[in-house]
Design brief:
Shape: globular
Largest sheet: 11 strands, parallel
Structural class: alpha/beta
Strand order of the largest sheet: 15-13-10-7-32-29-26-23-20-17-16
Number of strands: 35
Helix content: 10-25%
Strand content: 25-35%
Radius of gyration: 27 Å
Number of helices: 7
Number of domains: 2
Length: 430
């Protein structure tokens, strides 16, 4: 006997009004619970479909020069890795993209629009977990996107993470109970590992080229809404040797230093505890550098042919540190702007560039800071503040629990100019 038949029998039974009232209550509770559970499941499924649509559109758009069939085959093959039937031939449209409008046109293929579906028409609807008891057995869910080709600089096609984020060519690994706010971004080109009870505010972004490389435990609120598929351009971190060469060759006459650096270079063998550093000066140190606290270093650029060690209780404000070796900070170090409105400056306050690793110890504060590393970037514990800090590594980025990471909302610009070639870019546009 079906559930519907039981309801009809109970309704026809006039032996007691209480049973009818109980039936009403039971049905109401069932509907409320079913709507909550199945709606939440549908929201998560749509977020996953959006990621599939994004990655399939990018995969198809990379074959625009190979013909329409190659585009469709690439997009469907990519979607099928995440489930069969999510994308059909008729859900892939080739066309143009101009002034924010997609137009179907196979004669000039420069853009791809895809719609990933779990619907009855596709024979793969999302089956309900409770609402089937009241006759709603499935829900149709779909998500679409457009990917287009174009020409632009590397900075123009970067994933929108430069208002604050952790971006690694390797993996990004974060522990539990972290909060990501104000448009903060995570990107792992190889993988992203997240533990439990993390919170992703609306507007934050978690991106990687392949969903299969996202490894997360449970109770990560907002993660699926933040999830995007895509790759990142690492031209800035890759270009550090060129930037370092321009610092050494051009000094203050070039574009490799912030505009407040107007003097030097001054050549040193070391920087001592008592040595006075003149504001606005470039210092080039042959060997290792140790910056000891308590002390404020402000409006200076320091280039070291070895490692740079920043000891405890040092504050770095409007500085550039460039090391051919590693950069290591001890505990209780403050890096970046000391003013509360630094995001409104729309440019980074401080720069840490390393051809090796950049290691942060405990109780670190980063505010409006650009960190570029050709190695790994580990954070040991207790990032006291990370606000408007963009950390990019060609290796891995790792950090622990109970941190709050904030972006600046809008991207911050670098006053250090990087040589970035014009290149053809495939990117999501809608």
């Amino acid at each position: 006997m079906s559930f519907t038949q039981r309801i009809r029998i109970a309704w026809a039974d006039e032996s007691g009004i209480g049973s009818i009232a109980g039936l009403y209550i039971f049905i109401a509770v069932l509907l409320v619970g079913g709507v909550a559970i199945d709606y939440t499941n549908a929201v998560h499924t749509r977020a996953q479909l959006q990621a599939v649509a994004d990655s399939a559109a990018l995969a198809g758009a990379r074959h625009l020069a190979d013909g329409i069939e190659a585009v469709r085959m690439a997009a469907i093959d990519h979607a099928d890795m995440h489930g069969s039937g999510l994308l059909r031939d008729e859900d892939i449209v080739i066309g143009t993209w101009k002034d924010g409008i997609f137009t179907a046109d196979e004669s000039t293929p420069v853009a791809v629009r895809v719609m990933a579906r779990r619907t009855r028409a596709s024979d793969n609807p999302l089956m309900t977990q409770l609402l089937f008891l009241v006759g709603i057995r499935s829900i149709d869910v779909a998500a679409g996107t457009v990917a287009a080709g174009g020409v632009g600089s590397a900075s123009e096609i970067k994933i929108h993470c430069s208002g604050g984020g952790f971006v690694a060519r390797g993996s990004v690994t974060g522990n539990s109970a972290n909060s990501y706010l104000d448009g903060f971004c995570l990107h792992g080109e190889t993988a992203i590992h997240l533990h439990n009870n993390n919170h992703f505010e609306s507007g934050t972004r978690v991106s990687l080229p392949d969903l299969a490389n996202l490894h997360e435990h449970r109770n990560n609120h907002g993660l699926f809404d933040a999830l995007k598929l895509g790759s990142h351009d690492f031209a800035r971190a890759e270009g550090l040797p060129d930037l370092f060469g321009r610092i050494l060759d051009d000094g203050i006459s070039g574009t490799a230093l912030p505009p407040q650096i107007i003097g030097g270079p001054v050549y040193l063998n070391q920087i001592t505890q008592s040595q006075s550093l003149q504001r606005g000066m470039l210092y080039i140190v042959d060997g290792y550098v140790t910056l000891r606290g308590p002390r404020l270093f402000e409006d200076v650029a320091i280039y070291a042919t070895g490692n740079i060690n920043v000891r405890s209780n040092v504050r770095l404000n409007d500085v550039l540190l460039a090391a051919e070796g590693n950069i290591t900070t001890a505990s209780n170090v403050n890096i970046g702007s000391i003013t509360p409105d630094f995001c409104s400056r729309e440019v980074y306050s401080s720069y840490l560039f390393s051809l090796g690793d950049v290691t942060f110890n405990s109780n670190i504060e980063l505010r409006g800071t650009l960190v570029l590393s050709q190695g790994n970037v580990p954070f040991n514990s207790n990032i006291r503040t990370s606000h408007g800090a963009h950390v990019e590594a060609l290796g891995t980025i790792t950090y622990n629990s109970a941190n709050t990471f904030r972006g600046c909302g809008d991207p911050l610009d670098s006053e250090v100019e990087f040589d970035e070639e014009e290149l053809t870019a495939i990117r999501l546009v809608k």
